[in-house]
DNA sequence: CGAGGGTTTGAAGTGCATCAAATAGTGTGG
DNA sequence: CCACACTATTTGATGCACTTCAAACCCTCG
């Protein structure tokens, strides 16, 4: 499934349907929509580079975007992998207009980019929008705290288990069928491990909790068993959806 | 040096001198100062518990506060360790008034606590304050991203080296004398390793970069050598102070 | 001086990484 | 539609890093 959905429209997008802009003023939406640019990114295409001057920020329409940091010798640390509906490059506002991370398309992606300058004005003049941004930033922060916890307390198979559980609806169903949203290699780096380790850890997870693996489709027969296996080494218990107050 | 500085004053604190409140309105400051409570916390004293209802947030006057998460079996993951000037418990605003982490005094501490309810109103009504909070949240987020990078790319001795470098003034001086701000055991957990590992890794660091260790006083003869040793495995290069735009 | 916590050291085990190579899968051009 | 090229994934063998368990040491403080 490597296809990019075709978009007929080339006109300015309707920003009011995008969660990120929901609390922003109509004036701002109009202004920014006029300057929106659609960008189709092939797999591996680099969108922004850590340290570059941030003139624009990006909304993901489709595909997956990897945020990462890279050392001089080329090794990289994946910070996060975002999908449709998310925004990135916006926090550069608070870093002297310098992107704090690099971003590239992990899967073919469709992006909308907007001028960053207007964002600052809107944040400063529209309290509702500022609060919305604070709220999403807080949610993100919580997520990162949890990520750090996982790296500290969970071993490789448990991290995979946890990752799989977070891909389910968490609605109490006994079993679930999961589709890995991107490469196993990428999942591995997302979880801070090598591809080889991922492969072996998944095999171990299969042996220990009885899930079935066929390519990137994974069937969890016994969600309870998997959650017990993974969530034992975590401070939050299974239905661990991030519930965030208004 | 286990002494708590004596504070004669028992009157309401002057909030305008606290960075966190700088952008807040005088009315808010007065209101909140009236309800301020000073709290002296012994080492190990638990201040807030993850999951508890958040009625107040805390400003650190002195000492060190450990933020952490704990699993049911008692193992804990340290999220961060804060010192004087920092605020914690404030982000509960954005998590349905539930503390997203636990906090305890890592060293004897003096805290000021304030009612959380007023904070929400101020954030919503004072754009300047909201932006200031956004800014500090963004800085924090960046820090956590870097933390994750360190855990991913640096080994134990390198993480210690990086930690030490961040305790220096980073002003280009050739050598530096560092005082560990708290227990080695705590430094270890802050860096995501066991005390034994910390001890051995510090010994290795000493052997490899020629620093001198006497208890919790560490003399770095050759800062350049240490930074080369540690920062090779990191995306940011040595004088890596978080410089954040206005 | 003795108690208790912090720190170091030793010996052994575990988990993940690394290097190397085989296998499976996918997209390409013929 | 098939063979080839290329990438993703798996598997094997081995090594290193960190942990674990245990015990000694050290330092501070009553």
Briefly characterize the structure.
Two copies of one chain form a homodimer. Helices cover 36% and strands 22% of the residues of chain A.
Beta percentage of chain A is 15-25%
Tell me about the largest β-sheet of chain A: 4 strands, antiparallel
Measured on Cα atoms, how large is the radius of gyration of chain A?
Answer: 19 Å
Overall outline of chain A: globular
- Assembly annotation: homodimer
Q: Please mark out the parts of chain A with pLDDT under 50 across 5 or more consecutive residues, or reply none.
A: 1-10
Total number of helical segments of chain A?
7
Helix proportion range of chain A: 25-40%
Describe this structure in words.
Two copies of one chain form a homodimer. Chain A has 246 residues and is of the alpha+beta class. Chain A is 36% helix and 22% strand. Chain A contains seven helices and eleven strands. In chain A, α4 (156-167) packs across α6 (195-209) and α5 (184-190) packs across α6 (195-209). In chain A, 39% of the residues are buried. Chains A and B meet through β5, α2 and α3 of A and β5, α2 and α3 of B. Chain A binds a DNA duplex (30 and 30 nucleotides) through residues 2, 155-156, 183-185, 193-201, 203, 215.
Write the SSE topology.
Two copies of one chain form a homodimer.
Chain A: H1 26-34, E1 37-41, E2 46-48, E3 56-62, E4 65-70, E5 76-82, E6 87-88, E7 102-105, E8 109-115, H2 117-125, H3 127-153, H4 156-167, E9 176-179, H5 184-190, H6 195-209, E10 211-214, E11 217-220, H7 223-231
Antiparallel strand pairs in A: 1-8, 2-7, 3-6, 3-8, 4-5, 4-7, 9-11, 10-11
The structure holds a DNA duplex (30 and 30 nucleotides).
